[in-house]
Amino acid sequence: MNARAGRTAAATGTSRLLTRPMLLLLVASVGGMGGFYLLLSVLPLYAATAGGGGVGAGLTTGSMMLATVLAEPGVPWFLARFGHRAVVGAGLLLLGLPSAVLCLWSSFPLTLGVCLARGVGLGIVVVAGTALAAELAPPGRRSESLGLYGVSLGVPSVLGLPAGVWLSDRLGFEPVFLLTAALTLLALPAVAGLPERRATRAGRRSGDLDGQDGDPDGQDGDPDGRGGDPDGRSGAPEGSRGVPDGPLGATVNRSLVRPTLILGAATFAAGVLVTFLPLALLGGPSHLAVVALLVQASVAPIARWGAGWWGDRHGSSSLLVPAVLAVALGTAGLVRLESPVVVVVSMILFGAGSGAVQNLTLATMFERVPRSAFGRVSVVWNLAFDAGMGLGAVGFGLLIDRTGYPWGFAVTAALLLAVLVPAWRDRRYVRGEAT
C-alpha cells in the first residue's frame, strides 16, 4: 500500500478523535476562546468611543497581539516545568478576569493593560492547545484532529464576535466585560482532566505527554511510519528534519517559511477585519456588522475542519492557492461597504479562505518536522498568527487616517494577492519540486 492510500485508509478507519482528553481540551478551548472573541471587536469600539479614534482602536488589538507574541516562545518551557493543567488554567484566568477591572475604572491606559494581560493568556492557551491536539491525534488523522481543534477555536467566534458587538450596543460595555470573565471561569473544571506533562528529561526531548511515545503503534500517527508524507521525507529538505533545541528552533527549517508567511498574511487581513469592520459599517444598515461577523465566524470553523479532512487524503498544501485567493477576494469585496449583499458575500469568502488557511498551514508544518518539534512548531505557527493580527490592526489604523476604509481594504487585498506566489511554490514543493 502506498503512503497516500495508507493515509486514506487510516483516516477513514475507526480510530476515535473524541477521546476523553481531547474532549476536555475542546471544552477548555471553547471557554477560553469564547472569552477572547466576545471582546475582540468590543474593545476597539470601547477605545474609539472613548476618544481614541482609529489609532486607539488599532492599538487595543495590536497591544494584545504584541503580548501574545512575546508570551508564546516561553510556553513550552512553562509546560515542561509546571504541566498542562497549571499553565492552561493560568491562561484561562488571564483571558477573562482582567476584563472585569474595566467595570470599576475607565481609562485608555487601563484598557491597554487589560489587552496586554489578555494577550498573555491567549498565547498560553493557543500554544498549549495546538501542541496537545497534535499529540492526542490517532494514527493517520492528525490533520483532521487539528481541524476538530480548530472548530473549538472557531465556534466561539460564531457567537462571540457578533454577540459582543450586539450586547455592547444594547446593554453597554460593562455586562460584556463581566460575561467574559464568567465564561473563562466556567471552563476551568475541564482543565483538571488534561494530561499532566511533568515528563522526564528524555520525555521532554521526545515531545510526548508522559515521557513515552504516546502513539499506540509507534508510527507517529501515520499508517506507513514515514511521517505522513508521500516521499517518506516528512516534507522537509534533506538534513532539516532534526530541529535544533530552543523555543524558536523550528524556524531554521526552511520548509516552514512559506506556510508561516502565508498564515501571517491571512491573519493580517483578519486583524483588519475584526478590529475595523464594525467601525467601517457605523451609520450603515442596522445590524449589518453583526450579520457580517456572524457569517464570517460561522463559515471559518467549517472550512477549517473541511480542510483537515481534505489534507489527510490529498495533502495539506494542495488547497493553499484557492484558500489564499478566497481571503483576498473577500477582503477586496469590502471596498463596496455601501452594499449589504456584497459585504455578506465577501464575509463568506473571507471566512472560508481564512479557516482553510489556518488548518492547511498548521498541518503542513507538522508534517515537515519530527514529533519532538511539535511544541516549537506550535509556537512558530501561533507567533505568525498573532503577529499578523496585531500588525494588521495597527497598520490599518494608521492607514485609514489617510485613505479611508474602502482604499484601506483595497490595499490589504493587494497584499494578499502577492502571497499567491509563495502559496503556488509551496504546492510545487509538496510534489517534490522544491524551489
Structural class: mainly alpha
Report mean pLDDT, rounded to a whole number: 77
Tell me how many strands there are.
Answer: 0
Order of helices and strands, N to C?
A: HHHHHHHHHHHHHHHH
Low-confidence stretches: 1-14, 198-251, 430-435
Percent helix, as a range, is over 70%
Q: What's the story with the biggest beta sheet?
A: none
First-residue to last-residue Cα separation: 29 Å
Q: If you compute it from the alpha carbons, what radius of gyration comes out, rounded to the nearest whole angstrom?
A: 21 Å
Describe the structure.
- With 435 residues, the protein is mainly alpha-helical.
- Helices cover 73% and strands 0% of the residues.
- The protein has 16 helices and no strands.
- It has helices spanning 3-11, 20-40, 42-71, 75-82, 84-101, 108-135, 142-171, 173-191, 201-206, 257-280, 288-314, 320-332, 340-367, 374-403, 405-418, 420-430.
- α2 runs antiparallel to α6 (108-135), α2 (20-40) runs parallel beside α7 (142-171) and α12 (320-332) packs antiparallel against α13 (340-367).
- The longest helix has 30 residues, at 42-71.
- It is globular, with a radius of gyration of 21 Å.
- The two termini are 29 Å apart.
- Mean pLDDT is 77; it is low at 1-14, 198-251 and 430-435.
